[in-house]
Amino acid sequence: MENIWLNEAFKGEAPNGFQGQVGWQSPSNIALVKYWGKQGKQLPQNPSISFTLSECRSETFVSFEKADKFGFQFFFEGKENPAFGAKIEKFLLENQAFFPFINRLTLKVESRNTFPHSSGIASSASSMSVFVMGLLEIESLLVGPSTGSGTLDLCKASNFSRLASGSASRSVFPKMALWGATDCYKGSSDEYAVSLENDIHPVFKTYRDSILIVSDTQKSVSSRAGHGLMEGNPYAPARYAQANENIKNLLAALKSGDLDTFINITESEALQLHALMMCSNPSFILMKPNTLRIIEAVRNYRNETQIPLCFTLDAGPNVHLLYPESEAEKVEHFIKNDLVTYCNQSRWIADHVGDGPKKLP
Ligand code: PMV
To answer: What share of the chain is helix, strand, coil (3-state, %, to 5)?
Structure first.
């Protein structure tokens, strides 16, 4: 299927003297049903669902100026960063049919993350979505906002973010997002994520995510390589079927506020993601001994206290603890007393469900 925004791409050129700066912040997100395995042009093998975070975010200013040809510079935390800049530049050049106006602009991107970059937290979701928000604002300065309502079109932002990094497609929506076509949700698409904000029980709108930093070292497998390894993974078809089943049941649990089902699916998805890596060829073990110690402690705590605390994992050793806001005092006490001992330099990040990208003054 042809991407619906290809025909609509603004084909004009920036007028002489066109210059300025736009600034946006955009959050990271944590998947509950995981996207692991892709097809075609950055399309998912199965739908995924995530919480949009709040404290872990990227803040980016894009300065633009009319020029004879495309120019690009990327600064991360004040220093030029050609490696990360190359990723964004590649995304722009591969997708220039969507934004031909950049061919006559020089762009200088200055980005920072609110979370420590040595925390092992993936930043592609926040950093790619924030850049796309800036790019769409520049386009809107040339043509007027695409919705005509003075705001940027979030489905379009999600589509372009997806082309840069799959999980980034989910970061542009407040509270929760679903990316990937499923019969269980009208309007869902492989091309962009959709907001679940109006289809979730209030308990999830203020959910907490305390991120325990078990290790801050770089991942031994990039997510690009990890997705690629699903192609030869003998368990892949069963995994995609299971993910679809989990999407169906999680959507129902999110609507009704059924925390038992939420916990069951969320923990199973985290463990399946790591199980898939363990049975890829070559195989990877991204959990550390302290990851397992935390998981065991969380399950014991839940059994003893009946507090609905659960965990999820990204493609790394750090543990995301998910729980209702009403349990925050007790869970934070548990973290400080029993769990920080398993964290690298006792580090953890108190995050919570958030509102999506915002324009910076
Ligand atoms: O967006 P990518 O290509 O970095 O892949 C993200 C994969 C996971 O974070 C492991 C799962 C997910 O759905 O976010």
So the answer is: 45, 25, 35
